[in-house]
């Protein structure tokens, strides 16, 4: 059978990959010494001895990288050995970029390392420090020991300064408490002096001293009568032409090149002569309106020069996403004047682009594809407005029971969406001054979605919204949608049999409903800018979606008669409207474990509650939650977990289970937790970095009231889907697994393998399905398939994706 051959090929490739990885791990114990010459040795251990515990790690960093051995658990050296050895020796040419070569002993590098460690200790106040290096070699394996005789540290007795310009001295003294690490009595530390110089340079650049340079700042270290004490004098010298001067901004030239090729010499004599708001704007390309560009020039006429405003201008002009190069030069017409003229040179990039993307989701018993075409115009109204038009289509097909791929298509989707994003906040009667921490945007969007569930329903959804995005700080992002209008109408397919319909009447009511939503949304995000950094921080994203309250008030004022509990809902233009509240949070703790190792703990929870006009219908179908999938509980395919202890064997026929595949396992509440350890496995792996992960996921979805979910099953079955704190432990699913991330800098390819540990669709000890994987697997699967056909039970779930899961 074609299908069996297809599945066999997939499993064969996965098995080959697993065997290869296992082989690499096994050869970790193999020595690399057989590949080197007899006179060479491989460094196995480097020890830093007799160095103050506070400085051991820093001292080790001065050991030259080429003689620094990798971790005993690293596979970089074995991988290098696999691809870069020939005839029992390391290759000298045609080196493959996989892994890392072993650390080979080099006496020159040992001496450089010894000298650098000694200098480091002197810089930490151990002025009489001496470091020796001892090398022991046995069986072509070398141990290096750097031993320090630190002596006594020196402390700073007095701190003085010699600052030649009075205004510079005043600025330094007024800002010093905000940054200085120097204080009398501290241990001498050259790093603190370097930090002080850098901060002084920054402060001067922020306070008008345009021509201030770092070499103007230096320190004298003066011996005292006491051998363990020194005095430090800060010197800020003057430039050759006299005292330091503060400069103010004169008018600004802003020039846009005629094309992405830049500025030809011939355009220099054609500058505009009109000065508006202190800016002379010259657009040689004739493509841009003045105000949307000039708005993000923060070098204002009359202001004192501040390097922060220059950086801010760079950032915002780049964020407009219409210039491929931004350069700011300065011109001083008169050497006696304290005014400088900024010249901002902007090189435009291509305005229009078209991107075609495709993906093939392959999860357990389904396969599908999505194809999209996105057209983008980054200067739609000549003011850096981003227009985007996307057309997307896809389908999903079942595998199994002898069917060929894409022969049993159960789901088709099509959507077309358009949006215009303006780089400012467009608010009637109000013009906020924003942009200091990030580019604000106003986005107008409209979309149409068509969704077909074979033999069940057809849904059509129109969505229109206006959204404001702005930064409170660099780490605090607000997104507010004051107007979100959704019009949806669904139809149950005429051929749906009564058994299928009756067993899923709740979902049938949602799918068949014609209504609209008028509401608003708000989302707050904290520390999104730190997600790609190796540091310890807390990430938070919280949002709330509210709908129907305004329409409820309007219908109340008009005196409309309604009784929602008896299906007599209020209508607008003849259609019922939704009324609900739907909060959701995503809370994560990122813990940096040193190097490129990281631990993440995450909680993702949400609830949808319908009330008022929708109390008898629940929240819209699209607002329900699901569990599982590549960014959730990865041991389960998306939409195949929960709600609660729900088991699909309550649907009596295979035809009914097949028809509602992926639709009947939704809930009004979700709680998911994820724990993931991340590390780098191989630095050089087919031209990129291979990273690994180990994870444990837990959670589920639930319903909140007894009227939800399946109507005609008995009371006990409905109870299983409801959230009750006393039954939480019995209703939580647990999965574990490992993952691989192929990082090519611009994006990450992700492959996760999830393994089910505890499955809440069963009861008692049977929930711990991991035991069935090692004992009685065949009998367990046969029993399951007999009551769940065409569903089959899979202990392992494969997840492919682009980007990190969270």
TrEMBL record:
Domain (Bacterial surface antigen (D15)): residue spans on this chain: 483-768
Subcellular location, principal: membrane
Family matches, as Gene3D superfamilies: membrane protein fhac: a member of the omp85/tpsb transporter family
InterPro entries: Bac_surfAg_D15 (IPR000184), D15-like (IPR039910)
Cellular location(s): Membrane
PROSITE patterns in UniProt: PROKAR_LIPOPROTEIN (PS51257)
Keywords: Cell outer membrane, Membrane, Signal, Transmembrane
One Pfam family from the record: Omp85
Origin: domain of life: Bacteria
PANTHER family listed in its UniProt record: SORTING AND ASSEMBLY MACHINERY SAMM50 PROTEIN FAMILY MEMBER (PTHR12815), TRANSLOCATION AND ASSEMBLY MODULE SUBUNIT TAMA (PTHR12815:SF47)
Protein name stated in the entry: Membrane protein
Organism for this UniProt entry: Pedobacter psychrotolerans
Lineage, highest ranks first: Bacteria, Pseudomonadati, Bacteroidota, Sphingobacteriia, Sphingobacteriales
